[in-house]
Amino acid sequence: MTEVYGLLGRDISYSRSPEIHRVLWGKDIEERDYLLFDTKNLIDFVGRAKAMSDLRGFNVTIPYKQAIIPYLDELEGDALATRAVNTVKCLPSGRWIGYNTDVMGFEALIDGMDLDPSSEIYILGTGGASKAVVRALEKRGRASILISRHPEEGVLCYEDLPTLLSTTFPKVIVNTTPLGSHQLPDQLPPIPYSLLTSEDTLIDLIYSPEETPFMKEGQKVGAKVSNGLTMLWEQARAAQAIWAR
């Protein structure tokens, strides 16, 4: 029987996850298939997925990284710490276990960027991806500041950024929002780009398009930029290791 895996999300026809997982499986691809579970109805997906005897696991993307949690039987490791899930392992017993390999993916991304240890780190957005970024930074001993359109305790608003970005320390700004993605191609996170310098780093978790409007603004001043493609590959690699256990 062919083992079935897939990606749960909404409006995900653009996703490169099927391609990436098939490359990572290599010669074992004949025994596995990776599907897109593109749905606007999470409850309907759960019902259908529970009836799939060949489903061994699936990844989770926007907007279900937190919404999937009530349907899981257990959370492990970073998923427990972040309360966000991007990988689910489906056991033969019918139990679903949630993991967060986005954390490992972002760790791999920043490990390859040689970030200045004195830099101040700002994270745009407070969704599931943002929680993984915060967790990855914490595991590297780095503090960060969350920025949102809806400030709350421990979260600042975009209106605070002109003051924050006026300091002389190098900045790392991580976009975890969908602004600038293929779905919102002409939209930019509302930050004061005029305050950016060549000492700063802009990281966009979006990978489609590979060069986002956010990244282009950083390039204008010579800032270091990166998209989320490395993170995507590494979280997929970690997910496959979990499914294989």
Automatic annotation (TrEMBL):
Keyword RNA-binding applies: no
Single GO MF annotation: shikimate 3-dehydrogenase (NADP+) activity
SUPFAM superfamilies given in the database record: Aminoacid dehydrogenase-like, N-terminal domain (SSF53223), NAD(P)-binding Rossmann-fold domains (SSF51735)
Domain Shikimate dehydrogenase substrate binding N-terminal residue range list: 7-88
Classification via InterPro entries: Aminoacid_DH-like_N_sf, NAD(P)-bd_dom_sf, Shikimate_DH-bd_N, Shikimate_DH_fam
Keyword Oxidoreductase listed: yes
Pathway assigned in UniProt: Metabolic intermediate biosynthesis; chorismate biosynthesis; chorismate from D-erythrose 4-phosphate and phosphoenolpyruvate: step 4/7
Alphabetized Pfam families for the sequence: Shikimate_dh_N
Keywords: Amino-acid biosynthesis, Aromatic amino acid biosynthesis, Oxidoreductase
GO terms under cellular component: cytosol
GO BP term, example: aromatic amino acid family biosynthetic process
PANTHER family: BIFUNCTIONAL 3-DEHYDROQUINATE DEHYDRATASE_SHIKIMATE DEHYDROGENASE, CHLOROPLASTIC, SHIKIMATE DEHYDROGENASE
Name by which UniProt lists this protein: Shikimate dehydrogenase substrate binding N-terminal domain-containing protein
